[in-house]
């Protein structure tokens, strides 16, 4: 195995919680109704267009045309988007800080809409530790497309086999591994991630 000398993080559900239903807690207080709305109208699959580069205004206009009875709730997806990212994932931020203290270069590849990321970035200073962040919505390339990993490797300046890529999505992990990256499939267990970093010599 090649020596690993850099760490590349996913953001959503690895460094920060993400839950679209939180946008609607105050206006759809019944859990079943809220879950149905996020499953059928403002869904993660629909939101994925923003990750791929579709602007919010275009997405919202099209969705309102499909569900005019929910116009105000669909518009709330934009105006209250930050409610969907309520706080950090337990245990991962200390690892970022320890890696930074150890001088390990850190980067990110994230499926994140450009407009959403512009709102989110100032609220999340842990990202200041990262030398570069590849944002899918800005590049119009979405994980697990191999092209986004190839772009990231060029930008980060490290060969894939020398970088540990951390993601909660199994398809993204498989795509990175196929391209030669070292990988860790994050399942919410920061202790297991720490152990992997120690095994790779990134942390003591």
Describe the structure.
The chain is of the alpha/beta class and 204 residues long. It has two domains: 126 residues, HAD superfamily/HAD-like (Rossmann fold), CATH 3.40.50.1000; 65 residues, no CATH class. Helix content is 44%, strand content 11%. It is built from ten helices and five strands; from the N terminus they run E-H-H-H-H-H-E-H-E-H-H-E-H-E-H. Strands 3-2-1-4-5 form a five-stranded parallel beta sheet, sandwiched between helices. Helix 9 links the parallel strand 4 and strand 5. Helix 3 packs antiparallel against helix 4.
Can you give keywords for this protein?
2 domains, Rossmann fold, 5 strands, 204 residues, five-stranded parallel β-sheet, alpha/beta
Task: Characterize this entry briefly.
This protein is an alpha/beta fold and 204 residues long. It has helices at 31-40, 44-51, 56-66, 71-79, 92-101, 114-120, 136-139, 146-156, 170-178, 190-199, and strands at residues 6-9, 106-110, 132-135, 163-167, 182-185.
Write down the oligomeric state. single chain
Radius of gyration: 18 Å
Tell me the series of helices and strands, N- to C-terminal: EHHHHHEHEHHEHEH
Task: Order the strands across the largest sheet as they lie in space.
Answer: 3-2-1-4-5
- CATH architecture classification of the largest domain: 3-Layer(aba) Sandwich
Q: According to CATH, what is the topology of the largest domain? A: Rossmann fold
| Biggest pleated sheet | 5 strands, parallel
CATH class of the largest domain: Alpha Beta
The number of helical elements comes to 10
| SS class | alpha/beta
Query: In the CATH hierarchy, what is the superfamily of the largest domain?
Result: HAD superfamily/HAD-like
Strand content: 5-15%
Please indicate the count of domains.
Answer: 2
Please bin the fraction of helical residues: 40-55%
End-to-end Cα distance, whole Å, is: 19 Å
Shape descriptor reads elongated
Average pLDDT number: 98
Poorly predicted ranges: none
């Amino acid at each position: 195995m090649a020596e690993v000398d850099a760490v590349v993080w996913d953001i959503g559900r690895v460094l920060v919680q993400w839950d679209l239903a939180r946008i609607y807690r105050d206006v759809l207080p019944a859990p079943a109704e809220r879950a149905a709305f996020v499953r059928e109208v403002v869904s993660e699959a629909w939101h994925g267009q923003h990750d791929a580069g579709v602007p919010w205004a275009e997405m919202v206009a099209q969705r309102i045309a499909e569900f005019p009875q929910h116009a105000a709730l669909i518009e709330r997806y934009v105006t209250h988007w930050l409610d969907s990212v309520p706080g950090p994932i337990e245990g991962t931020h200390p690892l970022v800080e320890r890696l930074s203290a150890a001088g390990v270069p850190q980067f990110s590849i994230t499926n994140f809409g450009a407009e959403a990321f512009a709102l989110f970035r100032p609220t999340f200073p842990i990202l200041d530790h990262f030398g570069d962040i590849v944002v899918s919505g800005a590049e119009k390339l979405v994980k697990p497309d191999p092209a986004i990993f190839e772009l990231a490797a060029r930008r980060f300046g490290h060969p894939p086999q020398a970088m540990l890529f951390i993601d909660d999505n199994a398809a993204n992990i498989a795509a990175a591994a196929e391209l030669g990256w070292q990988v860790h499939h994050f399942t919410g267990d920061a202790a297991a991630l720490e152990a992997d970093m120690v095994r790779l010599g990134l942390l003591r």
